[in-house]
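[job 0412] stage=complex_fold ligand=pyridoxal-5'-phosphate status=START
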Amino acid sequence: MRNRREEVIAGHRLEPESLSMGYGYRPEWSEGSIKSPIFQTSTFVFKTAEQGKHFFEIATGQIEPEEGETPGMIYSRLNNPDLEILEDRLCLWEDAEMGLVFASGMAAIATTLLTYLRPGDILLHSEPLYGGTTHLVNETLPEFGIVSVPFRADMSRSEIEACLAPHEPDGRLAMILIETPANPTLDLIDIRMCADIAAARATDGRRPLLAVDNTFLGPLWQHPLQHGADLVLYSATKYIGGHSDLVAGAVIGSEADVRPIAATRTYMGTMADAWTGWLLMRSLETLHMRMTRQGDTAAKVARFLEEHPKVRALRYLDLLGPSHAQYDVYRRQCLGPGAMISFEVDGGEPSAFRFLNALKLVKLAVSLGGTESLAEHPASMTHSGVPLEEKERTGVSAGLVRLSVGVEHPDDLIADLSQALGAV
Ligand SMILES: Cc1ncc(COP(=O)(O)O)c(C=O)c1O
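[job 0412] stage=complex_fold status=DONE, emitting structure tokens
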């Protein structure tokens, strides 16, 4: 399916937003159809038994494909043309070798962790993490004998290594998982520093892998692989899908690191379906435009909120000034502030609820990154299951509200936020 011929025109390298319309697909394969058809099929017919045997030998790693040979289609749990074209297109945004699409962001994260973690291994992770990921690392993984060690964004490398130290005599650090910016606090984690922590623990040619959940800024405003990450994880439900009409996930990285995850995906059956893959290709065509507009609007909304007397502890990445501890990390690893905003309203949960209940244009719903602006209350919704003590430690306070800015007119959003704050 790979078709790299359109990548360059007269020596000019094309950008992902231009390639998103046709990369990896040729209309002549499908009666001239400008869009790839939806391959709504469970299985694929082999021309001969010998061909079927050959396809399986490649798919199961018994033989390597020949130079230029693309693995044949077998069964939609292993591969499907819509997913393969989409995966190639996702790689364009990260300049990566291999991508995989999953049934959800959680499927992408869980499949990745279960590929690389074994009983006795240590998972070092940032906090806060999205509530679902928190449950996975705090509750599910320990049941399989995996030790989860959290660290906070404000910790230095030596403080993080001090968190690890008590566990290292008994286990091997196998993976570092970070979410940056963190959901919902927008705390930033230094990707390079985490890559250095991993590199310092390489033994016998094995190194702990660094996986970065890039859902809040990717794929436009942060490219973790360029800062030393090994794997980029996505809830593709968010900006990549972008229309709040599907649930999907993705993992992107080098072929060596992603190939083993593909095998786990095959045997756990956590892949996305063809229709979702097709919808995500549709979404990628407008990704740059949507995210740029959302980012511009978020800047205007943040300026309004910054001056509002009822708004406290406003978090929006462009507000990080040179005196802020995370300013250098922001300048080094982010290409923009994104379109996510968090803030507190005075009076804890009752005031936050009054504000959320008064919204008219902004929808009161979890999720983010879609065309419509969404607001939610992390402490009682997305992070409801996170223990209170952890919420307090990580800044998920009772008055915190999270806002995902959509593509509506900025003045309309500001009018709505203004009247809702008036109700507090
Ligand atoms: C940062 C982050 N990672 C992962 C997920 C999980 O993704 P999904 O809901 O697609 O499973 C979410 C969901 O909100 C998220 O915000």
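The pocket of pyridoxal-5'-phosphate is lined by residues 104-106, 130, 132-133, 179, 183, 213, 215, 235, 237, 247, 249 (CB under 6 Å).
[job 0412] exit 0
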